[in-house]
Design goal:
With 249 residues, the protein is α/β, with parallel strands linked by helices. It has helices spanning 15-20, 33-48, 51-59, 88-101, 126-130, 151-155, 174-182, 202-205, 221-239; strands spanning 2-4, 24-26, 80-84, 104-108, 122-123, 134-137, 162-165, 188-191, 210-212. The strands form 2 sheets. Strands 5-4-3-6-7-8-9 form a 7-stranded parallel β-sheet. Strands 1-2 form a two-stranded parallel ribbon. Helix 2 (33-48) crosses helix 4. The longest helix is centred in the C-terminal third of the chain and has 19 residues, at 221-239. The two termini are 15 Å apart.
């Protein structure tokens, strides 16, 4: 009678089939916004400044001391972030990048997004967003966004740019990403989600210029608690025959 999803993403639920069967679907938007944006910022910083690579080198005993050209990364101040998808999470990422790191922000969204004085970002075509120094994916997983970032999209990125994905794994064609990284056509990637999650492409595991996290987007106790309470709120509303607070249409 009701699928109360514990999370905002619903790509694992056939909503049309549920609707046809008379089953309502709800999710937990809002509760995940800030935590997911934090993970995006984590991946941006770790990948741009080669922090994962540096930690691995240190733990392996390979650090011999400071020197001027060691692990030179991308300085983010004054660079441009291109955000693909400007919903709640995209706006939260823009705020962090612009107000926290001193970056400029452009974004691609399929529908127009009204200017928000609290989110200094400019809406552009997909090609211009992909030409940014840092490209962050924040779109929902739908049939239309599957492999949105394919070989052609990756070819529009700068050789010194990095790609960050905190959305869903199948938005990226991982085989094309591996090729772009291995051939030096982009500088690096920061990933929290994977195309065949929890399986990770073996080639990505061998690449020093890739930061890999185990889907940590909402992994904070208070955030998961808020998600659970929101899911319970949907269940209670359904049981009491009230409008569902977070119905998926």
């Amino acid at each position: 009678r009701l699928l109360a999803n514990f999370g905002v993403g619903i790509n694992h639920i056939d909503v049309a089939a549920a609707r046809a069967a008379g089953v309502a679907v709800t999710n937990t938007p809002g509760a995940v916004t800030e935590a997911t944006a934090d993970i995006a910022l984590t991946l941006i910083l770790m990948t741009a400044r080669r922090a994962g690579e540096g930690e691995r080198m240190l733990r392996a005993g390979g650090w011999t001391g400071w020197h001027p050209t060691q692990l030179l990364g991308l300085h983010l101040g004054g660079k441009t972030v291109g955000i693909i998808g400007m919903g709640r999470i995209g706006k939260a990422i823009a705020r962090r990048c612009v107000l926290g790191l001193g970056m400029a922000a452009v974004f691609f969204n399929r529908s127009p997004v009204a200017d928000d004085p609290g989110v200094p970002a400019r809406q552009v075509a997909l090609a211009e967003a992909l030409a940014a120094d840092v490209v962050v994916l924040a779109v929902p997983a739908t049939p239309e966004t599957r492999h949105l970032i394919d070989a052609a999209a990756l070819a529009r990125m700068k050789p010194e740019a990095i790609l960050v994905n905190i959305a869903r794994g199948d938005i990226v064609d991982e085989a094309a990403l591996v090729a772009a990284l291995s051939e030096g056509r982009i500088a690096g990637a920061g990933l929290d989600v994977y195309e065949e999650e929890p399986k990770v492409n073996p080639a990505l595991l061998t690449m020093q210029n890739v930061t890999l996290l185990p889907h940590l987007g909402t992994a904070a106790l208070e955030v998961r608690t808020a998600m659970g309470l929101m899911a319970v709120g949907n269940l209670v509303a359904f049981a009491e025959d009230r409008p569902l607070p977070n119905a998926v249409n």
